[in-house]
Structure formats: C-alpha cells, structure tokens
C-alpha cells in the first residue's frame, strides 16, 4: 500500500519530497517496531517478570495464586549479618548479557555508570548479593546474584524493593536473567544465577537512599517458598542528576483535531523521556501515538529515535521512553507522529442484546459476535467477540480491553463471570493482519435482565492517520 502511494506521489515533484520522506520514516519505524516485538518474543523465555505472568511460566499454578493473594509469611525472625560480596560474584561483567534485553541497562554499562555495592546475606544455604545499582530518577537497575548451596533447585523472586520505606511502582518491574539456565530461572544445586532487576520510579516521589531488596526463594520440589532474604544498601535515585538535560517546551501537538501537550523532554544517560498530557477538552480518548519519532540535531549531527520501547500511561498522561540519545547537547528537537489511536469518548462502549446475540452499538463495524466452533464450550450467557484489522492500520495495534462490570437497560450494574470458553480468546498478528478475540460471560441470569446490556471499553484500537510534528527545542 505504501509503495503504491509513493509511485502516485511521484507525479508531483514538490509534494513528493515531503510525502515520500514521511512514508519512508513510517516504514522504518514499523520495521523497528516489528524487530523489537520479535526480539522480545525470542527473549521472553529468559525474562522473569515481576507479576503473575512470569511466575506462571517459572513455577506451578499455585505460584499464580500467591501473586494475587500476596506472599505467605515466612517463618523465623532471626537477625542476619550482611557481609562483603565474594570476588566470584562481584564482577559487573557477569551481568552483561542482560544488556541485550534492556536498552537502559545497556546504556549504563556502555558508560560505566553502575555503582558497585557488593553486599550480601547468606541464609540456610542461599546467598543473595547486590553487586551494583544505577538509577536516573525515572528507572532503577539493581544487579544481584543468587548462590544456591543446597541440594535442590531454587527459583529467586524479587518480592519488593523499598527506598526509604517507599515502594516504587511494581507494574512493569522485572528481573532479567543475565545467564541462560537450563530450566528457566531455576538455579541448579551448587550454581549461581545473575539477574538485573529493573523498575520504574515515580518522578514526584521522595525516595531516600536507604534501599532494601527483598527476595524469596521458591522451591519447585517442595512447591512452596523456602526462604526470604533482605539485602540493605544505599541507592541514590538521582545519582545522575548532574548528567541530565531537561527541557520544558510546553508545546501542543495537534493530531486529527486532538491536542496533546508536551510538558517535558528529559535526556538522561540511561534513556530519553517525553512527558505528554492529553487535553481534557478533547472529544476523543487517546490511547497512544502511532509511531512517534524523536528527531534531534546538534551541529552537523542528526538523530532519529524511533518507536519508544515502553509507554507509561494513564487516561490523561503518558511518558514515551526512548533509548539514550547520542547527542551531547541538541540544538533542536522535535516530536513527530503519524497519527493516534483514539475513540470518541461517548462511543467507548459495547451495547449487546444478549437474547438475540446481537451487537447494537460499538465504536466501529469491525466487531462481531461469532458462534462457538463445534466442540467448544460456552456459557448460556456468554458471547464470543472477534475483531479483525488488516493492512498498515494493524501494524501498531493492540487488543481491546473490557470493563469487568456491565449495566442493564435499567442502569443496574452487574459483574461479569469467569469465562467458560477457554479456547476462544487471545491476540494474533501477522505481517498485515491483526485479530483480537475476547469472551465475555454475562452469566445465565443476564438473559432475564432488561436488554440491552452495556460494557464500558477501557481500550480500543482505532487508528487515525494524520502526520504531524511539533518543535520541542529551537536553536537559539
């Protein structure tokens, strides 16, 4: 589709130059995004996420239960003595393989920014050492090793990080294994595992330097947590403050009539952050920018940083997280996007007549109710939803998210039930096709509720293509 557009545009030499550049940029951005996605899929078996998903991959189903109900209390309150780490685990180079899976940590190693800690605690055959740490006020990386001196395998799980008693957000926190282990993240008897724990930091939080990393040891054979170890150390979350460059452009990027305020552009030695805020007066709820590109120039050196590796967001504010910039001090910088994913705020709902199995209202006409395949089980009050996008609009797509509550025609609120159909549901992508499947179980009783039934949409992908840019730093 894009190649065809380029050939047509060649009929107008003045328009071609601008339009072809946008198309090439978008192709490259999409290629970068696709490469990142493939790379992450290849590495998922080695990433031990902080949360239920990775715990399920690393251990048994009971692991999942603990992640929702909280970790069980560990017996014993003995006082443990911290000691200096042995030389065998104190080499930061032992953690280098993790850099391939996190750009912020890679930048820290490249510039020699990791501060050595080398403190550890040993308890009942397990020794936990914090080897080093680095933080830029937005992200923190903690290098730790786990020695297993017992005769059974052990899975380490970071249960929490505290900074002066304050816990950073744990939603995207994860431990990345630096060395490949034969059985996931289970450390064999007599072996040592090396991990890099990364977590986001809240910019407005008042973190103190006294840090505590808490790690629990899961025993697969015993099917329970065996030990809990805390390591205390110093971590200044603003240790790179003198190396940061902050700009406050207070500019507005307008895409498809929707206003997006750019509040801050922050360059740190680890990553680059762009803080955005959606205008509450917008008629559409914006879910994300499509292929946002950060363009910078310093003297004769120019730089384009493509699709951010992570987007931290709520309904009104978003932070785009890019890789570390190679520009020492940019003379100019701008943010360019090819569009937005957005839905009119009054259309963020799905209205269903459950008795007739019909969709009465949805943000677009791509959503449909399908019948179960032969042999598939589905509840009497359960519907199977399917939505498919094709062509370039599917490249940056994400799955829809449905509220757990729904209302009947009288405005009474009800809770959805667990799905009985376990085979339908999931997200599939191919080169130019995106298919999103969901089940929603209203419950058998909902057949007698006043129809129709309304479900709020928390997230829904509708691309609005409109290439725009805004200047963030102007050359003086």
Describe the protein's architecture and organization:
- 13% of the residues lie in helices and 44% in strands.
- The chain contains 5 helices and 30 strands.
- A hairpin with a 3-residue loop joins strand 27 and strand 28.
Over the alpha carbons, how many angstroms does the gyration radius reach?
Answer: 25 Å
What is the number of beta strands?
30
State the helix count. 5
**How far is the first residue's CA from the last residue's CA?**
41 Å
Portion of residues within helices: 10-25%
**Biggest sheet strand line-up:** 1-7-8-5-4-3-2
Instruction: Tell me what portion of residues adopts beta-strand conformation.
Output: 35-45%
Q: Mean of residue pLDDT?
A: 84
Residue stretches low in confidence (pLDDT < 50, at least 5 long) are 1-77
Characteristic terms for this protein:
single chain; 476 residues; mainly beta; seven-stranded antiparallel sheet; six-stranded antiparallel sheet; 44% strand; disordered N terminus
List the helices and strands and how they pair.
Elements (H helix, E strand, L loop, with lengths): L1 H8 L3 H31 L3 E3 L2 H7 L2 H9 L13 E2 L18 H8 L4 E9 L2 E10 L3 E10 L6 E9 L10 E4 L14 E9 L9 E10 L4 E11 L10 E3 L3 E5 L2 E10 L3 E8 L5 E7 L2 E6 L2 E5 L4 E4 L3 E7 L8 E13 L4 E5 L4 E4 L5 E4 L11 E9 L10 E7 L5 E3 L10 E4 L3 E9 L11 E7 L3 E11 L3
Antiparallel strand pairs: 1-7, 2-3, 3-4, 4-5, 5-8, 6-9, 7-8, 9-10, 11-13, 12-13, 13-14, 14-19, 15-20, 16-17, 16-20, 18-19, 20-30, 21-22, 21-29, 23-24, 24-28, 25-26, 25-29, 27-28
